[in-house]
Structure formats: structure tokens, C-alpha cells
Amino acid sequence: MSDPYDEGAEGEGAVPDPAEATEDVVLHHVLDAVRGAETPDVVPATSSVAGFAEFLAVEAVLDKRWPETAIDPTLDRIATLVEVLGDPQRGYPVVHLTGTNGKTSTARMIDALLTEIGLRTGRYTSPHLQLATERINIDNRPVTPERYVEIYRDIAPFVDLVDARNQEAGHDTPLSKFEILTAMGFAAFADAPVEAGVVEVGLGGRWDATNVVQADVAVITPIGVDHVEFLGSDVLAIAREKAGIIKAGSIAVLAAQDRAVAEVLVERCAEVGAQVAREGAEFGVRERELAVGGQRISIQGLSGAYDDIFLPLHGEHQASNAALALAATEALVGAGPEQPLDAEAVRVAFAGVRSPGRLERVASGGGTEATVLVDAAHNPHGTRALAAALTSEFRFSRLIAVVATMRDKDARGILAELEPVVAEVVISTNFSPRAMDPDELGAIAADVFGSERVSVEPVLAEAIEQARELAEEEGAAGAGVIVTGSVVTAGEARTLFGKDPA
Predict the structure, then answer these.
(1) How is residue 331 annotated by DSSP?
(2) Do the Cβ atoms of 252 and 246 come closer than 8 Å?
(3) Which tens digit of pLDDT belongs to each residue from 357-404?
(4) In this structure, how many other beta carbons lie within 10 angstroms of the beta carbon of residue 273?
């Protein structure tokens, strides 16, 4: 099965069927495709044509494996793999993050803070927006395609060894792509070497491949309902699943939650003997005001108050993410009232934070031209935060949404959250095999918005252009377009606007 987040090589015949391909066979096809590509910028600026082709070949081989959009309730395979690799994940302290929304933004903020106070960091996040290399970061930068290939080839013999052992033991399921990527991240961090790891859960918590780490700090961002086919629709059951990353002796840094969810998380902390730091009690946002290009906030951290922080991200949810990131950083380095973090380092770190695909401006409007924003919201919980930010922090005269979702997501819930804040919606799709059919999504949108406010354009680039025309048609200044509904949609839109993977 194909990895729904893999970028791959587009174009007819660019890559042969991965199920029938070896890495060498794929490499020859991909080299031909990349060299003959009509758009030379398909190759990242940090990579050579040959290096990028090898990266795509490795991705095609990995895509033959079990996809990361499913959970197999065992850590046995990944535990065996990291064991034969020498348990690289134990070579550095780790901040481990889970939750329904906000994980990647919070991870980026923690990474920025740790870097600014002088630590060498490794960050592992998922899914990626544009290229799989975004998932493994050293020193706040994605590894190059060439380095990605090197890491894979370094661990590939051990992957084969573990697969062979499992088969001999009568276990038919080989290592999944996500398990291999996770091991690659851990190995890359140990090889760097890093002084701290920031690791984001892929799906759930307890049975996620990343949960072989013994995290010093476990961060749980706001929990809602998502991935119901694997985690269920009971938010308390989801909370119990995610609470599985809290380990004995760790410090649990908890975002504000619904009361029942918070109780589940605190119960887990008591069960394993973890310390607790809660947003709204031990830490939190003290003040927040809008500012040009973002917001200015004051945070009460675990070690004291930090004022006059400029955060170049939009939304109250991002201010909460910043407080969560600050508390997690303080917990990891042992900062306290007697030895707080350097306030200026905190300000510099937050001022430099980027979170691509999160209310990101990809085209600036001027006069009657529409501003285009991209956001990776892919469930009602995340879309509600997006809608609140669009309402409170932007003053669009007319706002049009472009929406493309996955068929296994709550599309109706996503659209319902957007309906009050946008004038019309253009329904589209993205390149993922999991994408919802645009006509099916359009029918749901017509039910939510009314058919007169809905149009369908299957090609995303043309849907965005149509949305810009709709936004600008009344000729008033301040028109806007928001492209959302999926991480894949956000990534594809970034590529269309010439944004590099980051």
C-alpha cells in the first residue's frame, strides 16, 4: 500500500509499481523522470538530481511496507529493531509529544527554545507536508535527501534481520514504514550526536512506534476526536491511549483539557508516579494581544514569568502551544524559580519560530488581490481553532475556503466549523489515494452551506485560482482565501506557491 503522505514522483511512468520494484529498478526510472522533468525545481535546492532520485527510490521501496495510517497494538517489532541498533533513543534526553492537534507546532517551539539555550537538537515529527525529509531534523533543519538515503541504508541490514527473525518466529507482519522511519530518526540523532530529542507521536500513543522512548518529559496537547477508525470515537478512550506516553519518573506537561479528559491524564500520572504540570495551574498564558505578523504574549512558566514575547504565529491556540513548549523546555533542563531560563533567549527563540502550513500566508494580497493562507486543519477540533483565529485576527472583506479532505475524516464536521466564517467554499481534492472524492465532498458541503455557496473543482491549483476570483469579484480590498482540510492539501498548496520544504 502507498504511504498517503509520500510525495513520490508525479507524472505518468515516473516510478514503477512499488510492489514489483527493487530499489535499483526504481532508481533508474526515477533518474530518468527527474532529469526529464518539465519543472527543474522538483529537486530541492539542498540536493543534487542524483541524490534526490535516490531519495525517491528509497521512498518507493519503503512504500511497499505496511502504511502508517494504521495501528498494530504491539511495540515488539520496533523494540527489536532499536535493540539491534544499540538503542539509539537512549543516548539523549527526550521530550515526547502526543495529542490531537498542535503537536508539530509545539515540537517546533520546544526545538527552537532548546536550540537558543545552547543544546544541539534532533526533532522527529509526522506527517510531512511536502517531503519525508521534513520528519527528521538536526539543528532545526530537515536532513537532506542524500542524508535520508544514508540513514536508511545504514539501518537497512538490521531491518532485514528483524523481518527475518519475525518470520522465523511465525509473525507474518514485517516492520512498517513508520517503524523504520522512527528508527531512522533515532539513529540520526545518536549519530549527530544530539543533546536533546523532540519526538512527536505518529498516531495515538501507547502503541505508537515512538513509544519505545523513555521520555524525560511527556507533553500532551489538547485531545479531541480523530482517527476514529483506530482510536474510537470515545474521547476518554482516546485520552487513555495517548496517556500511554507518560512513564514512571517522567514529568507530564499537560495542555488545558476538558475536565473528564484531564482526570484521565492525571490518573495515569498517579498510576506511574509521574510529576504533573498543568496549563492553567502551574503554567499558562498571562496576557495576549494581537501584533503585526502574529501576537505578543506573556507566559507564566514553571520557573517564573516571561514577558514581551513576540510569536509570529496566529491564533489563541498557538499562544497556548507556546506556553506548553516553554513549560516542557523548563522541565527538561530543570529550570526553576532559582534558575529560570534566560528571558532574552526565550524571546529570541519564539520570535524565530516557523510552523509551515499552520495559518501560513503563501500569497500576500494587495489592493483588491486576495491574500492566500494555508492551514493543515484536518478534523473539527483543529478547524474550530482555525475558524476562531480567522475571525479574531484577520479582517477579510470576503473570505473563500478551498477544502480537500481525506475520506476517513469527519468532513461534515470540518465544513460545519468553517461555514460561519467563509462566504463560499470551493471543493477540491489532493493527490493522496485516501482523498475524498470531490463530488462526494461537494454534496456534503452543499448540505452544510447550501448549494448556492458551493462549487467543485477537482484540480487543486484551479480550485485555488477560482477561489481567488470569487474572493476578488466584489472589488473590495482585503479579500482572502484559506486552503485547508488536510495536511496533504496544505503541503500540496505550499508546493504550488513555490514554498520549500521546511
Answers:
(1) H
(2) yes
(3) 999 999 998 878 999 999 999 999 999 999 999 999 999 999 999 999
(4) 11
